[in-house]
Design a protein that fits this description.
The protein is an all-alpha fold. Helices cover 75% and strands 0% of the residues. The protein is elongated, with a radius of gyration of 55 Å.
Length: 1594
């Protein structure tokens, strides 16, 4: 602070300093701001005095000026005394004595200004002594102590006798008189004053007596309160409080109990503000600290109880524990000390003094006060009173009388609420203090809830102003808080009061589910930890829940259910949380738990829904099992529980559905499992890949048939539950969003969820997503009305282009809309003009289709590039995607089956003696009604299908435009229609196959059925490899249906001619301009069709073997699934079946330890394949092998002329089909005859024949020449192949080992047939001549061998004669059996069904053995196979060439061979030795190369096994095929394959066992060339020797 007294003033004191100082003081004392002036004057005086003390100014100068200043203010002497006091303290501490002297001199000089008494008050006794104001400081001290003691500590001794007792008697009589008259408190007060004066009464004692009387007469508030108020004017204000405090203290002994009357008096006085709460509060016990300690102790105790309940106690300890607990409880039951604060609080609440009561509650821990029942009840009573008028107005239910509650007589009590706004001011506050202890008054609980309900009604009705709305919003949030803090916790403490739970639900159901779930979340996770009582309740609930759940079984569902119900009324969250945790662990609990939940209230069901969602969303749980390939079992259990519980009980679904939608939005598809289960259980729509064909067939019928025959479980009573599901979806607008999210997620699964996850799991998630979409879409289609559907599903272009829905899913969602739309339009048209004729109806139907589909045709154009529409029309595209199986065919057999079932049921009902008659009648009525419904439905569907077919007939000409090529058209059709749809669902798979057949049957222009089927069966590897598990299953179904059709055509010439013979789909020349009547020669004839089918079977085998050999999980799993599905129709050919069987067997061995799921699949398929084996037939029965060699050429040649005018690409396409067939059949034929020569002869002769017969010789001859040139080289390759192929026929080995008769007979059979066939086919003269020449030559050289062969033939022939009849019978039996089974159609072509399993030769056993060695002896087998395949792949044109040319080259070779026979023998021996060495070396090389080139090896292995099934067999068959010609050939071949090949055969066998096909190939490629040379140079003799030598080697 700046100095007020400058140093200059002191220096020039006399001149001007003094006057300046006086002026300053005057100015300061005149300052209006009293405080500031006071402080400044104090400072100025202090500074002046301090200059004196320091010696700067003389004391007399200072005393003079102080004399002048002292008059300026009244309190100046006091201020000066203060300054002296401070200086006294300061100077007494200083060591310089002179300063102290200056100070005393100054005070002495100023004694005339300040009175002695003031100084004596303020200065130290020592200073006073030095100033001479007192004699001795010690005496002064003693005197002051005595005075203080007398003043403050000595009690005045009243002479009680001086107060006369009569006065008190009169006083009590005065206060106790009858006050009902016109006696007022003023009158009585006057009397009391008189008594005090007259009888000399002590006023405090009088007040005490007034209070005592008031305690006894509490009803006279109006008298006593004014009396005490006016009496208090005579006393000090604190007196009343002290007297009350003294009264309370009196009762604070441990045994004392404060009377309620005292509390009440204190409360009334507080309410009338006659005393302050703070003053009284300190007099009350126990202290606040003690209360807080007690509260903490309660919490600790509660936790201990919880710990005890959760601990596992062994039985021996239990009894001791119980005894201890009992003792403790007895101790506890001793009376707690009296809590005066709570007593006062209760009294305040009773009289309605909410303001003071609130202050007391605030001093205590939350809910501590209300945890005492009397207080809770008092507060409840106060709330009752406060809400009374509002409750009477809006809360009383209709028809209820109710008992009105009178208001408090007290005017100072809280104002009663008339509106919701007033409710908020006081009542909500009171309820918050009550907290969970509202449970003490269930009636009040119900009232509050009803008020809440009434408020929600008002809140949800519109039409209020903006201000009101804001008020309502505030009120609503308050209501939610009350619910959270008061209602729900109180419900937890109520004892299983179901009515309260239902009452609360009445209010809750008006909240949106988001709010409800928020409340449940708080209740479950936070509320129970907020109060010791709730902590205990939670523990007890869990304990009880454990007890019930341990004993819950299917048998005691009812009693357990009742206990669960009881427990759930008050603590549902805790109970359900525990139950769900158990369900997640033990899925066998699901059924009993679901059944036992029937005693729940509506609120509990809602809480259950919340608990389920919370359990599903639990972030701590892993959604995958540890192997990361499957979804966790806890999630699966919860999902199936979800489905069951939501179906059985009326639980709101919105939250669950929204949860699934949110998860999908977040890109998580795990939780679709829940949706899948819910839809399955609630709507009865099952999605399973395990459907039987019968079920699938039923699924193509109407709704009734689906329900009866299409699902695994009998779907009953889903009407209500599916309605609930539908309502939930529509009310919350979730139907379309869920569909779109699923469709988008399905395609996103791979990218969003695929990253780190196992491929198997990604596939599972994709399938789950897809299946749920199909199921959910099916539900919407069958449950939404047309209006709902059309209103919600946008048009197809919007779905695809804006929502990015994949096309298949978009059409799937739109399809029901089109169907609904068409049927409603059709009905409109029918009503408009009533024409009953069928034609009119059809016409109307077609019109309605055009109306509905025209915009769709427009819309689909934007879905694909413009060039797509060059080949297929938008109309065709839309038609394909908008129809279903229901539109294409009526499942008559399914309808019949279900009707028959019902008849059987009715018969059983009739026969049942125990069933009561009325029940019988009911059941029979139900069955009859069902039967009628089914028949009606069938009729309706039949009419519908006829209409649809009529429509298609009209449309078909505009379907396929084929502006580029038919080939391209088929590509587009498969790519955009068939492939996406056939893997969409099982029914769609069947639909696609049917649709292809339908397009064929309709003779659709520009549609090549052959090409279509060819594309479908060729190269299925890529399609299979890119499928998920379920897609593979559906793709398998599709192939199965396609194969069924093909097999039907293949089975019988009559069927083929009828269904395919004259159809444009079977044209072999694909002219660019469509079908122009086409001559018969352009059609594929029956026999060639059989070759084509064989080619398809062969391609399927090749693809299957490839997939099985990749070692890739997906490839193997998918191909096994597909193979299992197509088992009824494939494999049909024995050798292909065997090749498959070996591969699958290998998978079984390899995967047993590694991948158990693949092992299980493979084992399953293997078993089924074995059971199908008796139905397999040898290749030559599947299609005639030799004639095709002849016919094949003509067929292809016939195509020539057409080809001349066509673009080259087309010609190749045209020919490709047949070439495939002819090429393969021819290949196989060649392979069969080891002396290839014979076949060649035939083809040589056949070629010229055909060209002439065809008449188009000019163009033909050109083509033939060109082809011949190419084919020469090809043929040579083929020839090598033939020799090589036999190397890998393990079947042969197996037969050799078995050495049983059956195989011999079977071989004999086959050969005999082959021979018969050959005999039937006429040979040209040239051929015959050649044959004769060759026979002579060979006979001379090799008569011995011939003898053996002839013998073997004769035995074989005998056996053969016996066999055919047996075969036929077998075939018939099989056929009849299969038909009975449900009509797997087994083709009946010739003797297709001969149950001949393995080999097809007719020689004696020795000959067989020899042949076997032969087969192993030609080392280059696998390479041939490879070549075969490669050639197949490259182009059919090449193949075709391969068949025709060799004819020329081989006849020359033969002549050379005859000449050189003798020379060659010698050479061959030498070569044998060399070759043997070479082979050993090579074998080593192969083993190395095998490691280096794993990919090739798999390919080759595959090819060797799958493809060459046919070639392997054909080899062994061949000799007998051409008995006459081939004997010589055989011998030549025998001589060719010399001792070298023995070694080979052994090696080949070993290799075969180790399945290393690749080893052979590298070797074989080199050896091809060598062999060829040998063959050219050496004659047939060497072949003979080889046979012998190999035989010996055996």
């Amino acid at each position: 602070m700046a100095a007020l007294l400058p140093a200059e003033w002191i220096k020039n004191w006399e001149k001007g300093g003094k006057s300046e100082f006086v002026q300053l003081c005057r100015a300061l004392s005149e300052n209006k701001n009293h405080d500031v002036g006071f402080r400044d004057i104090q400072q100025a005086l202090y500074e002046l005095a301090y200059h004196v003390v320091r010696g700067n100014l003389k004391h007399d100068q200072a005393s003079n000026v102080l004399g002048d200043v002292i008059e300026f203010r009244e309190d100046m002497p006091s201020i000066l005394a203060d300054v002296f006091c401070i200086l006294d303290i300061e100077t007494s501490c200083l060591e310089e004595k002179n300063k102290r002297d200056h100070f005393t001199q100054l005070v002495l000089a100023c004694l005339y200004l300040v009175s002695d008494t003031v100084l004596k008050e303020r200065l130290d006794p020592e200073t006073l002594e030095s100033l001479g104001l007192i004699k001795q400081s010690q005496q002064f001290n003693q005197k002051s102590v005595k005075i203080k003691t007398k003043l403050f500590y000595k009690q005045q001794k009243f002479n009680l006798l001086r107060e006369e007792n009569e006065g008190y008697a009169k006083l009590i009589a005065e206060l106790g008189q009858d006050l009902s008259g016109n006696i007022t408190s003023d009158l009585i007060l006057e009397n009391i004053k008189s008594l005090i004066g007259c009888f000399n009464l002590d006023p405090n004692r009088v007040l005490d007596i007034i209070l005592e009387v008031y305690e006894c007469r509490p009803e006279y508030d109006d008298f006593f309160v004014p009396l005490i108020e006016s009496y208090m004017y005579m006393c000090e204000p604190q007196t009343l409080c002290h007297i009350l405090g003294f009264k309370f203290k009196f009762y604070q002994d441990p045994s004392g109990e404060t009377p309620s009357s005292l509390y009440r008096v204190a409360a009334v006085l507080l309410q009338h503000n006659l005393i302050d709460l703070e003053d009284l509060y300190v007099h009350l016990l126990p202290g606040d600290n003690a209360i807080i300690e007690e509260h903490k102790r309660e919490i600790v105790e509660a936790k201990q109880i919880v710990r005890k309940l959760t601990m596992v106690v062994l039985s021996s300890e239990k009894t001791e524990e119980k005894e201890k607990e009992k003792e403790k409880e007895e101790e506890k039951t001793e009376k707690p000390p009296d809590n005066q604060k709570l007593g006062l609080l209760e009294a305040l609440l009773k009289i309605g003094d909410w303001h003071h009561a609130q202050s007391i509650m605030d001093q205590m821990p939350p809910f501590y006060s209300t945890s005492h029942k009397p207080i809770a009840i008092a507060l409840c009573r106060l709330v009752h009173v406060t809400i009374e008028p509002l409750y009477r107005r809006v809360g009383v239910p209709k028809g209820a009388k109710g008992s009105p509650i009178s208001s408090l007589p007290n005017k100072r009590a809280p104002k009663q609420a008339e509106s919701f706004e007033e409710l908020r001011k006081e009542v909500f506050n009171m309820l918050c203090y009550l907290g969970p202890h509202l449970s003490h008054d269930p009636i009040l609980f119900a009232k509050v809830v009803r008020l809440g309900k009434a408020f929600m009604k008002e809140f949800q009705s519109d039409g209020s102003k903006q201000e009101d709305k804001e008020k309502m919003e505030t009120l609503f949030s308050c209501l939610l808080s009350i619910t959270d803090q008061v209602l729900l916790p109180s419900l937890s403490l109520m004892d299983c009061n179901a009515c309260m739970s239902e009452e609360l639900w009445g209010m809750f159901k008006t909240f949106p589910y988001q709010y409800r779930y928020r409340l449940y979340g708080q209740w479950k996770n936070e509320t129970y930890n907020s109060h010791p009582l709730l902590v205990k309740v939670k523990a007890q609930t869990i304990d009880r829940a454990k007890y019930i759940m341990k004993r819950l079984t299917k048998e005691n569902v009812k009693p357990s259910g009742r206990q669960i119900g009881k427990l759930s009324h008050s603590n549902p969250t805790i109970l359900f949380d525990y139950i769900l945790s158990q369900i997640q662990k033990y899925d066998n609990l699901i059924t009993p738990v679901v059944d036992s939940l029937k005693y729940l209230t509506s609120l509990n069901y809602d809480v259950l829904a919340y608990c389920i969602i919370e359990a599903l969303a639990n972030p701590e749980k892993e959604r995958m099992k540890h192997d990361d390939t499957t979804i966790s079992s806890w999630l699966q259990s919860l999902a199936s529980f979800c489905g069951a519980v939501f179906r059985k009980y009326p639980i709101e679904l919105a939250g669950l559905l929204q949860y699934v939608a949110n998860q999908l939005k977040a890109g998580k598809s795990f939780d679709l499992l829940i949706l899948k289960e819910v839809v399955q259980k609630m709507a009865g729509i099952e999605i399973t890949e395990e459907m039987t064909m019968e079920q699938l067939e039923a699924m193509t019928g109407g709704e009734q048939l689906k329900a009866e025959g299409g699902y695994f479980g009998q779907i009953r009573n889903t009407k209500k539950s599916s309605q609930r599901l539908k309502d939930a979806l529509l009310d919350h607008d979730l139907a379309l969003p869920l569909c779109l999210l699923m469709a988008q997620q399905r395609n996103g699964v791979v990218f969003q969820e695929g990253g780190e996850k196992h491929l198997k799991l990604v596939g599972k998630l994709y399938d789950q997503c897809h299946d749920t979409l199909v199921q959910f879409g099916g539900f919407l289609a069958s449950n939404l009305s047309t209006e709902d559907y059309i209103k919600r599903v946008p048009s197809i272009d919007v779905l695809c282009n804006e929502f990015h829905t994949p096309h298949d899913a978009a059409f799937f969602l739109s399809r029901p809309m089109y169907a609904h739309h068409i049927s409603s339009k059709y009905d409109e048209l029918k009503k408009a003009e009533k024409g009953n004729k069928q034609q009119h109806k059809v016409h109307k139907y077609i019109t309605s289709c055009e109306l509905v589909m025209a915009p769709v045709h427009e819309a689909v154009i934007s879905l694909h590039l413009p060039k797509v529409w060059d080949d297929i029309s938008p109309q065709f595209y839309a038609t394909f995607w908008s129809l279903t199986m229901y539109d294409l065919a009526v499942p008559h057999s399914s309808y019949d089956r279900e009707v028959n079932k019902l008849k059987v049921q009715m018969k059983a009902i009739d026969d049942n003696q125990e069933m009561p008659p009325n029940k019988k009648k009911k059941e029979k009525e139900r069955c009859t009604a069902l039967q009628d419904k089914l028949l009606e439905e069938e009729k309706k569907q039949l009419e519908h299908v006829q209409r649809v077919l009529q429509r298609l007939k009209l449309e078909k000409d505009n379907w396929l435009l084929a502006k580029s090529t038919k080939n391209e058209t088929i590509t587009k059709f498969l790519q955009l229609c068939i492939f996406p749809r056939c893997i969409f669902s099982a029914i769609d798979a069947v639909y696609c196959a049917h649709f292809v057949e339908l397009v064929h049957q309709q003779k659709t222009p520009n549609f090549s059925t052959l090409l279509c089927y060819d594309r479908v069966f060729s190269d299925i590897i890529y399609t299979v490899a890119s499928c998920t598990e379920n897609e593979a299953s559906r793709y398998g179904r599709f192939l199965c249906c396609m194969l069924e059709t093909v097999t039907r055509w293949h089975s019988d010439r009559v069927i083929y001619e009828k269904e395919c013979g004259n159809y444009p789909g079977f044209l072999t020349i694909l002219r660019a301009t469509g079908f122009d009547g086409g001559n018969k020669a352009d059609q594929l004839d029956y026999e060639n069709f059989r070759h084509v089918v064989h080619k398809w079977h062969y391609k399927l085998t090749k693809a299957s073997v490839h997939c099985l050999e990749t070692g890739e999980y997906t490839h193997i799993r998918n191909i096994l699934i597909v193979l299992t599905k197509i088992l009824p129709w494939y494999p049909k050919v024995l050798n292909l079946g065997q090749a498959l069987e070996r591969r699958v067997h290998k998978i079984c061995q390899e995967e047993k330890e590694k991948r158990p799921d693949l092992y299980a699949l493979a084992m399953g398929y293997s078993g089924q394949l074995k059971s199908r084996k008796p139905f397999m037939i040898p290749e030559n029965e599947f299609h005639h092998k030799d004639p095709p060699a002849r016919n094949a050429v003509p067929a292809t040649v016939q195509n020539g002329p057409g080809g001349a005018g066509m673009p080259t690409s087309l010609t190749i396409n045209t020919v490709r089909l047949e070439e495939g067939t002819t090429e393969e059949t021819a290949d196989k034929l060649k392979e069969k005859s080891q002396g290839v020569v014979k076949v060649i002869n035939k083809t040589v002769n056949a070629t010229p024949k055909v060209t002439t017969s065809n008449g188009n010789s000019a163009s033909n001859s050109k083509i033939i020449k060109e082809k011949d040139d190419k084919e020469k080289s090809g043929k040579e390759k083929d020839k090598e192949k033939k020799d090589k192929t036999p190397a890998a026929t393990p079947e042969m080995k197996a037969l050799g080992k078995d050495g049983k008769d059956k195989p011999k007979e079977e071989r004999a059979n086959k050969d005999e047939k082959a021979r018969e066939i050959k005999e039937k086919t006429p040979k040209s003269d040239k051929e015959k001549e050649k044959v004769k020449k060759e026979e002579k030559a060979s006979k001379e050289e090799k008569s011995k061998t011939v003898v053996t062969i002839i013998e073997s033939k004769s035995t074989a022939e005998k056996e053969r004669e016996k066999e055919p009849s047996r075969e036929r019978d077998l075939a018939k039996e099989m056929k009849s059996k299969e038909n009975a089974k449900g009509g797997e159609k087994v083709p009946v072509a010739g003797s297709l069904k001969s149950p001949v399993p393995r080999s097809e030769t007719s020689e004696s056993e020795r000959e067989q053995k020899r042949r076997k060695v032969d087969t192993h002896s030609s080392p280059s087998h696998s390479s041939t196979v490879k070549d075969n395949l490669n050639e197949l792949k490259d182009s059919s044109a090449k193949h075709y060439i391969n068949h025709t040319t060799p004819t020329l080259s081989k006849s020359k070779e033969r002549e050379v061979e005859k000449k050189d026979l003798d020379k060659s023998r010698e050479r061959s021996r030498e070569r044998e030795k060399k070759d043997e060495k070479d082979r050993k070396d090579r074998k080593r090389d192969h083993s190395n190369s095998d490691r280096e080139v794993p990919q090739d090896s798999t390919k080759r292995r595959k090819e060797e096994n799958g493809t060459t099934g046919s070639s392997k067999h054909s080899k062994s068959e061949s000799p007998s095929d051409s008995p006459r010609l081939n004997e010589k050939e055989k011998e030549k071949n025998k001589s060719k394959s010399s001792g070298k090949e023995k070694g080979d055969s052994i090696k080949a066998e070993k290799m075969e066992k180790s399945s290393s096909g690749s080893k052979k190939e590298s070797r074989h490629d080199k050896e091809k060339a060598e062999k060829k040379e040998k063959r050219d140079s050496t004659g047939g003799k060497e072949e003979k020797k080889h046979h012998k030598s190999s035989d010996k080697h055996r």
